[in-house]
Design goal:
Glycerol uptake facilitator protein, 300 residues, single chain, disordered N terminus, mainly alpha, globular
Length: 300
Amino acid sequence: MPDLESPAPATASGSGRGAVVAGGEPALASRLAPRVWERAADAARSHWPEYLLEALGLCLFMVSACVFTVLLEHPGSPARQAIAGGDLRRLLIGLAMGLTAIALIYSPIGKRSGAHMNPAVTLAFWRLGKVAGWDALFYVLAQFVGGASGIALAIALLGSMLIGDPAVNYAVTVPVEGGRWLAFAAELTISAGLMLTVLIVSNRHALNRYTGLFAGALVAAYITFEAPLSGMSMNPARTLASALPASVWTDAWIYFVAPPLGMLAAAELYLLATGNRPVLCCKLHHENDSRCIFRCQYYS
């Protein structure tokens, strides 16, 4: 697994074992620390537009999730009153969020950032060696900030009375049918399924421009069919964003553990199945002229 930083080893001054232990290690640490922070500063200075766009992507996704949940689930909504069936309303929410994901992936935002919009996705691509350590860290931080900002923006647009109604409850994700362990298994499975699909499709030149369509279709299907089990999160930043204003932390650990485990397992399975064949890149849509900051082999 790639390290956050891999500095070259330094040789301690002095002679004998005692000089290395007593003087070498502090000296080594004092030399390495500035270099680590310099690399972090270089990454932030060079790649801040991608970090900002990554945050914006999840922000807009969360706004969309809140808007469509209010529209189709709030008791006072005309759409909710006209559509009595819960399964049909969930299908419509799934279609709306799948289309939202597709729109963001193929938008200028997603073309530039890669449209991970999920710490588990970034972590899996880091494991595959496609994202540098500092970029991965800043992407994850941006995703959490973006998710929380999206909920805050939705509250400002819709009002806490609408989005905080018990039928909406800030679009929180909690186990529903079957309890926590079934929810854990479901989150693990859908996360692995999404990541494996992304890897298979994005690494085939005949298909990779359609990766966003496959991802959006899975989001729609998961919300329609899996949401009754876990609430369909697949994303730690998405879960935290809703849990903060709702103050609902029921089995929240599931959504911080299962999605990263599932996507990391999918990455390992992909490497095993392909004989460690290199991954082209980690953008979900790469067939564009936007800058790529990743360890990219898309055009090689």
